[in-house]
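Encode chain A's predicted structure.
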Amino acid sequence: NEHPKAALSVSPGFAPDDELGSNDLQLWRQIEFPGTNGQVSALGLATFYNGLAQEKLLSREHMELVRVSQGG
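Encoded structure for chain A:
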């Protein structure tokens, strides 16, 4: 059973009107999925991944956990 909005994170560049409502594009732009919804600048994306690389956002141990596929 997937979360009803799970597809939002796998739809690059697509604002899903059926899930959020056609009048709620502002909400779509406020939701942050780095690099998937196209609402990020190159500098913003680089800053995010730099923070990951320098372990400012997640520890090395947590990075090892999240980089492994959980789908099997």
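The chain has two domains: 1-40, 41-72.
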